[in-house]
Amino acid sequence: MPAIACFAGLLAATAAAASASAAGLTHLAHALLPAHGTLAGPLAPLLPAIACIVLFYAYALLLHRLLLHALPLRSGPVESSVRAAFGYQLYLLFYLMVFNALIRSRVLPIPLMRPVYLALGARLGARTHTGGTILDPAFVTIGHDTLIGEAALLVPHVLEGGTPAHFPIVIGNHVTIGTHAVLLAGVTVGDHALVAAHALVAKGTVIGPGEVWGGVPARRLRGARADLLQRGQTA
Fold this sequence. Notes:
The chain has six helices and 18 strands. The chain is of the alpha/beta class. The protein folds into two domains: 1-105, no CATH class; 121-235, UDP N-Acetylglucosamine Acyltransferase, domain 1. Strands 3-6-11-14-17-18 form a six-stranded mixed β-sheet. The protein has a five-stranded parallel β-sheet with strand order 2-5-10-13-16, covered by helices on one side. A four-stranded parallel β-sheet has the order 4-7-12-15, with no helix packed on it. α1 crosses α3 (47-70), α1 (2-32) crosses α4 and α3 packs antiparallel against α4.
């Protein structure tokens, strides 16, 4: 398939660029830092590998953003045109073969996952962090001071009738998404709302400001409190 061949070529070029850059940086580090008495001493054998991995993902993220700009994914079903299908296949290959391992490995601490998701296209407000997983970050918008709990899952894509589609997930300010909760495509969560742990929020659900939802499938457990609504108007 053309997308696979293109992906393989881009991946090889990215790896080669990362390797060359890492070699240059390692040589520079050895020249600038003494071999003993500093952190560079014991870590010297690992520097090339660490630099190569970091640079590989940095270059891959940059390439991914350029591809999204050149071949943008639209909300709704993926178009049947050759260009749209090629762009979607390339996007899927990059996400599954490169970024999925980074996102799901839990190697990076939670604060460092924020810049990763931002680089992948997510829109995250100030002081918003996630201990869960955001799939298709370009289709996720989250306001400020919102917490996504451990192992929660945001899934903006669906596959219905054999046609893949993306519907944005929009989460407001001061929202709490409980641990292991799942939000499916097209979900909207208002300011100051709470989604309970292990809840499954169905596709297209609209959760109002200050409401509490839980269960499988999720339903409203409590309406908005007046103080939260008033606070939301000034947030």
